[in-house]
Amino acid sequence: MIIHTVVFRFRPDAPADAAESILAELRTFPGRYPQMRDFSLGPNVSTRDSTFTHAFSVRFDTAADLHAYLQSASHERFVRERWRPVVERHHIVTYETGGRAGRPRGPYGMEYARIEVPDMARTIEFLQYHVGLQLEQRTDEYAYLRADIEHHSIELVSAPERTAGHTSAVGYSVENDEVLADLRKRVADAGHEILELQDRQQGFCSDGFGVRDPNGLIVELFTGFLEYAEPPLQELRPVDLVHPFIATPKYEESLDFYANVLGFQSSDEIVGSTTFMRCEDRYHHSLALQNNKEHYVAHLCFAMKSFDHVMRARARALYKGEPIASDLVNHSASTSIAFYMHDPAYGPRFELCDRHRVFTPEEHETHRPRRMPPDPRNIDVWRPAADDWGRF
What is the CA radius of gyration of the chain? Predict the structure, then answer.
């Protein structure tokens, strides 16, 4: 976290209305620069030092956010045209603190899912053609496929004893070692067992650990996930793995685990049914939890490059006769348009979407989750009536 503080004195000959105009404009900065946090401004009330008449202080999450503000054309114009003519003297102090104010940080974003499948070859073929993933590594035991520059989005594990695919773990990156250490402490303090990452995964990141959620699903958290220099060359592919959708009979317990232990934030809630939760990458949801009679990972969502690419993938599914489990849904909460494919042999449903909502930095800190009734139109705005649940 970066603290940026400016102390200043107006020129003795500066008109009072000009000085007040500067102060009024400074108060508009948080609305103009969404990277700003905790902006404060006021006159100097010290009885020990009256060198400066006023000060303002603001917090930025990163040095890059501060740099973007300082180098913006609007900031430079303000300093040149408005500030310098009326300010006689000023000093600037910028420093980095060890933590971030306001709330514990959660994971940054979803990176991969680990799926045990009965037929490795068929699943790889499906993920390559219908989802657009690129195969990077394969043995008789496991395979890695990626969507963008991150090392992998899907890890497949050969499990010929299974009759259907089973998602056994999900992986989330963490912003830095400090946040990772805090997450590890929060997990341990909550009484959960800290799991070592598997040997293969340890080779793909700098540091990390795993923990079982209340349903037994392993959640792996790590820093320094390996990346490729360039994304895959194929045009029809996802650009990101956005979220898992997890059904659970331990709904309230799972909500408590992900919110109060791991630091996910609630974006929206369909009361009694589903809660959408976000990470620090600010996607509307990097995790969805559904109140259900049994536990399973219902689907994995991939964001495509455009709606055109969603429709091209849909055309491929229709052409090959792959089961489309839910066709062309216009999501009310996240604003994405998507369709879902599902063959149990390959694991969960695979959602391919366009335009998943991303919060601004300011919204990320201030958004209040909506509490929506369990109406299908709160899941898909194209549903015509409150009883139209048929296409789910």
Answer: 25
The answer to whether residues 245 and 290 touch, using CB atoms and an 8 Å cutoff, is yes
- Residue 266's H or E segment, with its range, is strand 265-270
Structure-token match 């180098």, residue found = 71
pLDDT digits 0-9 by tens, 219-239: 999 999 999 999 998 899 999
pLDDT per residue over 82-114, tens digit each? 999 999 999 999 988 754 445 789 999 999 999
Tokens of 210: 């795993």
Residues in the chain: 392
CA dist 298 and 342 (Å) reads 10
Whether the Cβ atoms of residue 217 and residue 167 lie closer than 8 Å to each other: yes
Determine the Cα–Cα distance for residues 298 and 212; give it in Å rounded to an integer. Answer: 18
Answer for the pair 273, 292: CB distance below 8 angstroms, yes or no: no
Q: How far is CA 45 from CA 14, 147, 237, in A?
A: 20, 56, 59
Report the distance separating Cα 27 and Cα 21, nearest Å: 10
CA distances (Å), 104 to each of 187, 265, 324, 365, in order?
12, 10, 40, 12
Q: Is the pTM of this model over 0.85?
A: no
